[in-house]
Structures are given as C-alpha cells and as structure tokens.
C-alpha cells in the first residue's frame, strides 16, 4: 500500500496519471493475450475501465490488435435501479467502442437457468444464504464469470483478467492480493483458473483517488460520473466487484449487490435508496428482511425438512445435546416464499417506474414447477395455482405428456400409505422416478434411481424430531 495518495491540490498528479497510462499500455502491448475486464458499474470498476480506455485511446489504432471483453454479472436479483443503469452503460460501451474504433466488447454474464437464486431457494429449498453457507456466490457470481473466461481461454490459450480491486479496501483484501503468485512486474496468477492472469491497475489507489479521477476525467463512453457519485451518497460506499473466488466479501449492503442478500443483518444501502425517494423499493426491503428471519434457529423446526437433500437425516452433538442438521425448506414454506415474492412484484409493478418489472422470470417459474413436481411430489401442481391467485393471470405451462397424476391420485396414495404404514414421500418419489424414465428406449438409469431412493432415511418427521426433544402437537 502506498504511503500517501497521489493527489496534488485535490486532483491526481498529471505525471502520476501519465505514468499509469504508460503502464497499462505496456501490459497491453506485451503479448497477444486478450483481456477480460470485470465491470460492476461501481466506482472501482468504472475507474479501472476508464483508465484502460483512456490508455488505449493514446495508442495508434494499428496497435490495438487484441480484444478487451468487458463483462458485467447479472445475478437476476440485482436492485432494479442498478439493472437499468448497467444495461444502459453496457450499450454505451459497445456503441462508443465502435464509434471510436476501440477493441472493447461488453457482455453480460448470467447464472445458468437451472441454477438461479430463485430456482435454488424456492425450487430446491436452499435456505437463505448466511456467512457459513454462501451457496449463492459460486452459482450466481463465480461460475458465470469463470465460464466466460474459460471460453476465451479455450479460444485464445491464455487471457488477462483485469480487476478494479484495491489494497486499501480492507486488510483482508490486501492479504488476499498478497497471496497471489506474482508473474513479472504487473501480473499475478489467477487463483482458480489455469492460463488466466490478473492485472489490477488501481491496486494502490485510495478511495479519494478513485473519486478524484472519476470526477476530473470525463467518462469516455458517455456516462455521467456525477450521477455515479449521487448513487453512492448517503449509502454504504461499497460495490460488488467481479467475484473470482470465495475470498471475496459478501455484496450485501452495496448499491451494486443483490437486493436479496441475507448474509448481512440489515441492508443499509437499500434503506438509504428508499429514504432518498425510491419508495417503490420498500416491498423488496420488506421481503429481504422477512427472509432474514428464517435464519432464526428457533424457527427452523417449523419451516425446514428433517431430511437433507441427500435424503439422510443427520444429527450433531452440541454440549451433550442432539441437534438436527436441518435440510431444505419444506414445500409448504417454499410456496409461501413464492406467494410473497409475487405479491412484492405486483406492488412494484404498480408503484414503480416499470409496469413490466419482473422479480422472477417465467423460465424460473417453470424450472421451479418441475422441481416441485418431480422432487417434492407436488401432484396438485400448486405453482400455477399460486401464480394465478396472486397475479390474476394464468401461467402458461407445457403439457406434461406423462403426468397423469394429480390431486385425486395423491389423496388415494395417502390413504393406501396410511393403511400400510408407508411414508407417502417414498411412494411419490418412486412414481416420479418412473415418470422421468417413461417412454425412453434405454431405461438403465431407473435401477440406480430406485436404489438411491430406497437408501434414503425414511423415518417420519415426528420420529426425527423426537430425538432432539421436540414433539409436534
């Protein structure tokens, strides 16, 4: 970390800035490896992109021979205000790059459709993320970015990943940066990806320098950096950078993080946006705050399954007492989450600037429906009913050729299982295993499916809870 800021009279010294431009140019011209620049829309990534852009503007066009891919992560649970800002900015980057004949190309990276926040939370019942189980980071941030980077490595052999990380952000950040293996004067090895190198051009900047640079040098792609400053005022001065490994902190409490983040106890940034006039965001904050309450240990027995997703019932001993290791949210609670989410969506569509604002997409709803049907035995097909109940609209769903089982069949199955003292979930899973294989010419997987189902723990919920001294009324 430098001993002092490179500021002179409230502005970055010209000679320092010129030297930095030269350094960026030297690294760019040193080889043929394309660059992948992580852009979140926040101050640090904006300063980094602006610095690289200004550096390349000073080079002869004949030397701009390799691409710079600007990637921005859309988790599908970003604050709507930020989504609009990022979308507009990416369009400006691509338009300005073409007009200025510069090698920038902006892309949005997203999680795979079966691995989004809502598909995992509502579909699979993953509990709201917390500090010891941040399942969202891998799926929403790391995997989409790494997938894009890996594609470029496959095409080009090697890439340089450009990040707007700074040592002055925190001692943890500085420590993580120091752990990277230095390669040459300016690059370090990527912590996870082979043939990827990391370049951090503003690693020694302080926050003051970032803002001085942004406010004294106009955005070369046409953004207004005063607007960016206004977005930070009266809010947590943080952003969610391109996440490349699990050492990155939670993005909760950030203008540029996920509005659903439950890793932090209180979202002061969202609260500040509401206090500054974005009242229509209140349903999102209320929903997030309610989701945080599901982490209360005392309430887990009401909303979580006794079986883990592996099918096993597991216990741990704490101070001589048996404690259950809770599984996913119960289906009935997932249905409640969906209902509340759709209600929040309905309110912001009415009161917000976009009457078509979506908090959850149709594709996600259909993925969740499939998980409920085939993993949870939701033969009543409750998702379309919940959707219509809240929105007063029908959800168009594909015809299930081999469904044939509904609420009446489920009621009969319950009666038969009760008569023979069998867990109804066991039978529904066996039926659904058959449904998945129905009509296939090769059915070799059916035996392993049946075997894995039979190996699950099929003790009743009451039996499992009695081991920890809890008896349902």
Protein described:
- With 473 residues, this protein is α/β, with parallel strands linked by helices.
- It folds into two domains: 7-232, HUPs (Rossmann fold); 305-466, no CATH class.
- It has helices spanning 14-29, 43-57, 80-100, 117-123, 135-156, 171-179, 207-216, 225-232, 268-275, 282-293, 300-303, 331-351, 362-375, 382-391, 407-419, 424-437, 445-454, 461-466, and strands at 7-8, 11-12, 35-38, 68-73, 104-109, 159-162, 182-183, 187-189, 196-199, 315-318, 321-324.
- A seven-stranded mixed β-sheet has the order 5-4-3-6-9-8-7, sandwiched between helices. A two-stranded antiparallel sheet has the order 1-2.
- Helix 16 runs antiparallel to helix 17 (445-454).
- It is elongated, with a radius of gyration of 26 Å.
- Residues 249-253 have low confidence and may be disordered.
Task: Describe the protein's topology.
Blueprint: E1 7-8, E2 11-12, H1 14-29, E3 35-38, H2 43-57, E4 68-73, H3 80-100, E5 104-109, H4 117-123, H5 135-156, E6 159-162, H6 171-179, E7 182-183, E8 187-189, E9 196-199, H7 207-216, H8 225-232, H9 268-275, H10 282-293, H11 300-303, E10 315-318, E11 321-324, H12 331-351, H13 362-375, H14 382-391, H15 407-419, H16 424-437, H17 445-454, H18 461-466
Parallel strand pairs: 3-4, 3-6, 4-5, 6-9
Antiparallel strand pairs: 1-2, 7-8, 8-9, 10-11
Mean pLDDT: 86
What is the beta-strand fraction? 5-15%
Largest sheet: 7 strands, mixed
Structural class, by secondary structure, is alpha/beta
CATH class of the largest domain: Alpha Beta
Order of helices and strands: EEHEHEHEHHEHEEEHHHHHEEHHHHHHH
Give the CATH architecture of the largest domain. 3-Layer(aba) Sandwich
CATH topology of the largest domain: Rossmann fold
Main sheet: strand order: 5-4-3-6-9-8-7
The first-to-last residue Cα distance is: 61 Å
Segments where pLDDT lies below 50 for 5+ residues? 249-253
Shape: elongated
Helical residues, percent: 40-55%
Total E-strand runs: 11
The number of domains is 2
Number of helices: 18
Cα radius of gyration in angstroms: 26 Å
Considering the protein shown, what is the CATH homologous superfamily of the largest domain?
Answer: HUPs
